[in-house]
Amino acid sequence: MSKKIKIIVADDNRNLCQMLQNYLQGQEDLIVVGVANNGLEAWELIQSQEPDLIILDLVMPNLDGLGVLERINSRTTINRPKIIMLTAFGQESLTHQAMMLGVDYFILKPFDLDILSKRIRSLTQDIPSSQPNHNSSASPIVVSTVGSGLNLCVEVTTMMHQIGIPAHVKGYQYIRDAILMVVEDVSLLGAVTKELYPSIAKKFDTAPSRVERGIRHAIELAWERGHTDTLKRIFGYSMNIERQKPTNSEFIALLADKLRVMSKVS
């Protein structure tokens, strides 16, 4: 039996930590070796447990995620763990700083637990068994480039049909392009209003504000007319779909991440 992937969970939301711990412990190849609710606790666990991967919240008390990253980067004699950073919409400037500090992957709250576990496996499958990483700047930022094994245009169209977004509304085309752009460059999630919407608006000769409204309208239509089972399958882990609709950014991020996982598998 192969060695289990050692994980530390660090987030000040205790309910989220408990949910993550319960889910990850139920996976045969994953083991949670520590849970922290602030940055100082996280740093102590990192030193004592030497995890393969850390699920790290960006904003925490005592020592934030950036501070934890700086301390990890200061070590030169120990293998550097992979870092999945949990972020929320509106934290763009902090996310950019985290990218510069060597985060391996960002995941926007709320998120799908199945996608998280797949991302954990894809990030850790090539962890060396020896040879510490002496250069923290060499850690890759995941800006996904998809292979030729998956026709993304077909896949994203299929997913949108399953969700129930009508093809005749303008937001349909905006969402499709937004998802494909984020699949290619995940950093766009940190610049939705400054880069993503304007790029789509330029293509369709419209205003960024109309792109935002068109996407919002399409999501609302999906929630009104869509297939409940499909919505639960895609969004059910992270929200009550009967009471809560995702924001534009959450919707785009989650579907883009599903496509990235699919392209990795293919």
Q: Secondary-structure map with pairings?
A:
Blueprint: E1 5-10, H1 14-25, E2 30-36, H2 39-49, E3 53-57, H3 65-74, E4 82-87, H4 92-100, E5 105-108, H5 113-124, H6 152-163, H7 170-184, H8 192-204, H9 208-225, H10 228-235, H11 248-265
Parallel strand pairs: 1-2, 1-3, 3-4, 4-5
Helix pairs in contact: 2-3, 5-11, 6-7, 7-8, 7-9, 7-11, 8-9
Describe it.
With 266 residues, the chain is of the alpha/beta class. Helix 7 packs across helix 11 and helix 8 packs across helix 9. Its cofactor is Ca(2+).
Q: Predict the CATH topology of the largest domain.
A: Rossmann fold
According to DSSP, the number of beta strands is 5
Helix content: 40-55%
Supply the CATH superfamily name of the largest domain.
Response regulator
The best one-word shape is: globular
CATH class identity of the largest domain: Alpha Beta
Q: End-to-end span in angstroms?
A: 25 Å
Find the structural class using helix and strand composition: alpha/beta
Q: Overall mean pLDDT score?
A: 80
The portion of residues forming beta strands comes to 5-15%
In DSSP terms (H or I, runs of 4 or more residues), the helix count works out at: 11
| Rg | 19 Å
User: What count of structural domains?
Assistant: 2
Query: Regions with pLDDT < 50 over 5+ consecutive residues?
Result: 128-150
* Major sheet attributes: 5 strands, parallel
Within the largest sheet, what's the order of strands? 2-1-3-4-5
